Amino acid sequence: MSTEVRVPTLGESVTEATVATWFKKPGDAVQADEMLCELETDKVTVEVPAPAAGTLGDIVANEGDTVGVDALLATIEEGEGAKPAKSEKKDAPKDEPKSEAPASGGGDSVDIMVPALGESVSEATVSTWFKKVGDTVAADEMLCELETDKVSVEVPAPSAGTITEILADEGETVAAGAKLGVISASGDAPAPAPKSEAPKGDEAKSSSGKDVEDAPSAKKMMAEAGLKSDDVKGTGRDGRVMKEDVQAAISASKSAASSPAPASAPRAPVSADDEAREERVKMTRLRQTIARRLKEAQNTAAMLTTYNEVDMTEVMALRNEYKDLFFKKHGIKLGFMSFFVKACAHALKEVPEVNAEIDGTDVIYKNYVHMGVAVGTPTGLVVPVVRDADQMSFHGIEAKINELGKRARDGKLSMAEMQGGSFTISNGGVYGSLMSSPILNPPQSGILGMHKIQDRPMVVNGEIKIRPMMYLALSYDHRIVDGKGAVTFLVRVKEALEDPRRLLMDL
Asked: Which residues form a coiled coil (predicted)?
């Protein structure tokens, strides 16, 4: 009997690694938990321990090979004197399929599993399947996309072959480590999978008249409630009825029964002609979370906003003077955000309550600055965190912001990269905003809103000058930050930006 050595979880959004070093060779005796090999990802080095004692058998992935999560690395044979698996000809037919099919569900089948979703994230929603039953796929080809309340997670094919089963339809909620489908590694597709055996009659038709299969959870709930598919307006793809649609239909039915003539409807009435031209799209989990957290911030914090304006002349002149040298030395462009991060970190030291948070009846003062930088993505606003920003150089801040921004737009941010912020900066100016009141990012007590730089006439030393001006807005939690502290913070940011030399002199 042999024990499989597989690639462990590599971290959020990390789907593959390179085999760096094997510490053992076939035939070597190993102890349980003894280090067998070392894997390298683009972020960390991962050691792979022996899952059991015995003799190292066949090494499937050699040094330099790229392997996916849960891929087979090697086998361990029982007993200290066991020979390597390669030399046991009688076991070859048994072992060969395993070496081709990590996470096998039996025979030459490979299970498609939900990857690690991040710390404290236990479930996700199947957003989109890029493949269907019967499709041939290559190893590491994207099969589907999952959505959590923070990030999108792509699921690659663990092996080349043919998709034979899809067990979790679009719109279904799946747990971390759950089975999404099955790939036949031999490439032989069986008869159409169960999901292609579509329900007949009313169950297979959406409100749009298309033949689609409703979500299994929705069908079960409709059966329990005595509803048919035609009684429920589906919001899934091609009109598919989802679990939430059935819940909405049941709630609407109960409301109608208890109050036939409600005083107000969830939305304004529209004509049949207008409704036919509307499109109803279910909010993504990310958008639902954004909506919930923003509303919680308004309901929980005593939020106020104070405003000021900053003359960007000196920052722009300094940037223009050194941007070419900066890029030549550091290989990255010098932007405005690093100046604002530096200015805010400087001001937070003088007004620490803006960098604090309330925990019950306690106030937690942060002796560090983990700066959240709001980034717009196609799916919504996310706030990756630049940790210990007060200790970083200008080029270190610019490099980290660029890296996090790209990962955010690609949907590759991990949960850890968006947690633990102590203060946030939001730049609405990139979209042309001249003035706004940013909403707090709980449990933080302050957020700075940047805006568009606009040339305006200003009085300078008794003369009217055209100056590049920007409005600044600080929203703060008045439960912990007094008006004096908020105004002082914003004035210190203004002073540092209008005379950047103050940052060098710590003034």
From this structure: none
In this predicted model, which residue has the larger pLDDT, 239 or 480?
A: 480
Is residue 485 pLDDT above 80, yes or no?
yes
| Domain, as residue range, for 146 | 112-196
Q: Give the dihedral sign, CA 10/14/16/17.
A: negative
Q: Which of 44, 77, 100 is the last residue of a domain?
A: 100
**Helix 337-350 × helix 394-409 angle, to 10°:** 110
Confidence check: pLDDT of 210 > 60: no
CB burial readout 352-386, b (16+ within 10 A) else e = ebbbbbbeeeeeeebeebbbbbbbbbebbebbbbb
Q: Comparing 135-139, 262-266, 445-449, which segment has the lowest mean pLDDT?
A: 262-266
Q: Global pTM?
A: 0.50
pLDDT number for residue 256: 53
Same domain, 57 and 164: no
The CATH number of whichever domain residue 224 belongs to comes to 4.10.320
Identify whether 213 is part of a domain.
no
**Residue 348: how many other CB atoms lie within 10 Å:** 25
Asked if residues 375 and 430 have their Cβ atoms less than 8 Å apart, the reply is no
Has residue 24 been placed in a domain?
A: yes
Residues tagged active-site:
478, 482
Tokens encoding 366: 């942060």
Q: Do residue 425 and residue 490 come from a single domain?
A: yes
Claim to verify: residue 69 and residue 128 sit in the same structural domain? no
Average pLDDT, the chain: 80
How many residues are recorded in the chain? 507
